[in-house]
Amino acid sequence: MESSEHKTDLAQLVEVNGTERWSVFQRLRELEIPCWCEPNQPLRVYLSDTIATVQFWSVSRQQSASRQELVLWLEQCWQIN
After folding, report:
1. Which NCBIfam families does this UniProt record tie to the protein (predicted)?
2. How far apart are CA 51 and CA 48, in angstroms?
3. 3-state SS assignment for residue 43
4. What is d(CA 36, CA 74) in angstroms, rounded to the nearest whole number?
5. What is this structure's pTM?
6. Residue pLDDT, tens place only, 4-63
7. Residue 14 forms beta bridges with which residues?
8. CB atoms < 10 A from the CB of 2, how many?
């Protein structure tokens, strides 16, 4: 059994700048994705697997995309069979 909480061979450390970093930080914490955010510093996110990466992408997209882009994206998802 591996004692490390994270698999370092799969992990990626991502930084998020801008005003949306605090809302992204809060949502990632709710999703239990390891992340750190200090004042005047970029948000740092530890992505250890595919699920965390997709969740991070989704959360960050919701913060950065316009409402129209999100509506179009959702409509496309509904059309995929």
Report:
1. asr1405_asl0597 (NF045598)
2. 9
3. strand
4. 29
5. 0.69
6. 344 444 456 677 777 788 888 999 999 999 998 888 888 888 888 899 999 998 998 888
7. 45
8. 6
Sign of CA dihedral 25, 28, 29, 30: positive
**Residue recorded with tokens 């969740």:** 55
| Token representation of residue 51 | 């699920």
Q: Is 46 exposed, middle or buried (0-12, 13-18, 19+ CB in 10 A)?
A: middle
For tokens 């955010």, what's the residue?
37
Q: Where are the domains of the chain?
A: 12-79
Tokens at residue 52, please? 């965390």
| Rounded CA separation 81/78 (Å) | 8
Q: How far apart are CA 34 and CA 17, in angstroms?
A: 17
Helical H segments across the chain, by residue range: 21-30, 50-64, 67-79
